[in-house]
Amino acid sequence: MKKPNIVVVGSVNMDLVTGVKQLPQAGETRMGDSFATFHGGKGANQAVACARLGASVHMIGCVGQDAFGEAAVQNMERQGVHTSHISRLPKQSTGVATILLEEGGENRIIVVPGANHGMTPAHIQTAAGVIRQADIVLMQLEIPLDSVRAAMDLAYQHGVSVILNPAPAVSLSKEDLARISLLTPNQHELPIVIPQAAEQSLLDYPGKIVMTKGKDGVSYAQDGIIQHQPGFTVEAVDTTGAGDTFNGALAVMLARGAALPEAIMYANAAAALSITKHGAQSGMPTDREVQLLLH
Ligand code: ATP
Q1: For labelling, which of 101, 232, 243, 247 has a CA lying 20 to 30 Å from the CA of 285?
Q2: In what order do the strands lie in the sheet containing 82-89?
Q3: How many C-beta neighbours within 10 Å does residue 222 have?
Q4: Which residue among 46, 209, 211, 212 is best mutated to probe the pocket of ligand 1, counting the most ligand atoms within 8 A of its Cβ?
Q5: Is-contact 17 43, C-beta < 8 A?
Q6: What's the gap in Å between 255 CA and the centre of ligand 1?
Q7: Long-range pairs of 107-112 with CB within 8 A, sequence gap ≥ 24
Q8: φ and ψ at 162, to 5 degrees?
Q9: Is residue 272 lining ligand 1, measured as CB closer than 6 Å?
């Protein structure tokens, strides 16, 4: 089977997680119990998901000229992602999410997009060669919309399919939707992306929207009716990154030439496996692990 060739255009983040018995009040200092860093950013997560499943992956993204950026690029290289189109921007920090996690599960999160928001259409142009040769360009919305649109236009001009995971959600124009081969919102995002009832959007764009619904799997429309594919039943340990694994797996299967229902089945299985382990990226399965669950 041909190795799928996927380009991911998106964010690269470092998640800084501090565990504490009780969150501090304003002006208060408290001793924490634990601290750990995790590689994240929807773009980087989806790139790693694709690479784990056996695809050739080029990441287009931006980090700062700092230790987190260096670590993030090294991490992606270790996972087999091609990183020559990750730019290191001067005077910008690598994207970080600072997460304060209270014992009972309550949290406070601050995201600083940093270099992710420094991505411009010029960065996309520099990577035009890899976009032209891709089977699929996979994107999210944690980078500026004009860069997403530049990549969409370029892919469209060269007949390359675009999968957009519209997170965080914004309203998209009809022109945007015309350039996208597949949109993968969750059930909260879809009514923001297309401001009408989700069911109506699925019916208006048959085969073009796959709406994810957590453990309930996905919905999409085919032959004038809404189809549902349930999720796989697993013991959930950490659902972070389920959506990113789903998107990566869907892209890999579609690039392999699978029909949409088959690709969804595979992506549901991959996402379910990812939540049986801690961490967004560390739980992402290999193709072999997904095949074992499916057969
Ligand atoms: P994330 O929490 O990563 O941002 P998301 O909101 O983008 O995820 P979800 O709809 O929560 O996306 O989940 C994406 C897919 O992951 C689902 O369609 C399903 O295949 C799988 N999934 C998520 N949660 C579960 C679960 N508890 N059990 C089985 N599969 C799950």
Answers
A1: 101
A2: 82-89, 56-64, 5-9, 136-139, 161-164, 182-183
A3: 12
A4: 212
A5: no
A6: 21
A7: 108/23, 111/13
A8: -120, 125
A9: yes
Q: Which atom of ligand 1 is nearest to the CA of 218?
A: 18
Instruction: Retrieve residue 268's tokens.
Output: 């549901």
232 Cβ inside 6 Å of ligand 1: yes
pLDDT in tens, 222-274: 999 999 999 999 999 888 899 999 999 999 999 999 999 999 999 999 999 99
Query: ipTM of this predicted complex?
Result: 0.97
Residue nearest ligand 1's atom 31 by CA:
215
- Scanning the chain, the segments in alpha helix (DSSP H) are 42-52, 67-78, 121-126, 128-133, 145-157, 174-179, 190-193, 198-204, 242-255, 260-274, 287-294
The residue whose C-alpha atom lies closest to atom 4 belonging to ligand 1 is 243
C-beta 145 within 6 A of ligand 1: no
78-114 pLDDT tens trace: 999 999 999 999 999 999 999 999 998 888 999 999 9
Q: What is the DSSP string of 273-289?
A: HHTTSSSTTTTPPPHHH
Angle, nearest 10°, between helix axes 42-52 and 242-255?
Answer: 50
